[in-house]
Amino acid sequence: MDIRPLTDSYAVSPQIEPEDFAAIRAAGYTTVINNRPDGEIPDELQSQAMRKAAEEAGLTFIDNPVIGGALTEGNVDAQRTAIDAAEGPVLAYCASGNRSSVVWALAHAGEIPADELIERPAQYGYQLAHLRPMLDR
């Protein structure tokens, strides 16, 4: 597990395992957002199995699959809603953490300066500069 905090209340991670949820909870996270579609992963990592493991660990689990190259406004809205509803820090994951960074940045466009929305993920190698026109709107 490789947690990469973008803020004090939101972090991203590459794919996690069901056995990681206890450590995620111990690290202070209250909500986990899955941004990975089931079609990309084996059965044991699909949303239903991950939800069961997360809830058993006492975490809220949100499924918001973001298809690479096919991000929707619905994805952005769902991410924003999940972040806003969380009762504590949020950990979002996908294959690498990039999609979870992208939906976070787009969900905060207009609230956080575009430079910060690009720079925070960049410290972990996520390149979001191509999103600047959308982040500046």
UniProtKB/TrEMBL annotation:
Family annotation (InterPro entries)? BLH_phosphatase-like (IPR005939), Prot-tyrosine_phosphatase-like (IPR029021)
Residue intervals of the Beta-lactamase hydrolase-like protein phosphatase-like domain: 2-110
Molecular function via GO: hydrolase activity
Question: What is the superkingdom listed in this entry's lineage?
Answer: Bacteria
Q: Known Gene3D superfamilies for this protein?
A: Protein tyrosine phosphatase superfamily (3.90.190.10)
* Protein's recorded name: TIGR01244 family phosphatase
- Give the species this sequence originates from: Falsirhodobacter algicola
